Amino acid sequence: MARVTGAIAELIAVHCGKCDIDFGMPRYFYETRKQDGVTWYCPVGHPRVFTGTSEIEKLREQLADARAATDAVDQQRRAAEARSQLLMNEQARLLTVPFSFTGVKT
Length: 106
Prior knowledge:
There is one protein chain. By secondary structure, this protein is α+β, with helices and mostly antiparallel strands. The chain folds into 2 domains: about 40 residues, no CATH class; about 40 residues. It is about 50% helix and about 15% strand. It has 2 helices and 4 strands; from the N terminus they run ββαββα. The strands form 2 sheets. Strands 1-2 form a two-stranded antiparallel ribbon. The chain has a two-stranded antiparallel ribbon with strand order 3-4. A hairpin with a 5-residue loop joins strand 3 and strand 4. The radius of gyration is 34 Å and the shape is rod-shaped. The termini are far apart.
């Protein structure tokens, strides 16, 4: 007779596309296989694997996209600051050029 240890596992309903049965899989096992992509087996013995992008991979892609966007904005900011500095230098140069009224008729 099996002995119950008091451990409770939350089960996720899963369907085997090969033999068409429904069964319960412990949540921790389900989430682990979704993340690592390792082959697992239905109760009848059919090898199964979760394909596609895992949640961790999706988050990594989102993070990479966010970093790329941040880098692009930072590069635009630096370019704008450089243009601003050039304009301020040109303005300062023009203000120091001596002004002459030569040739102006009154």
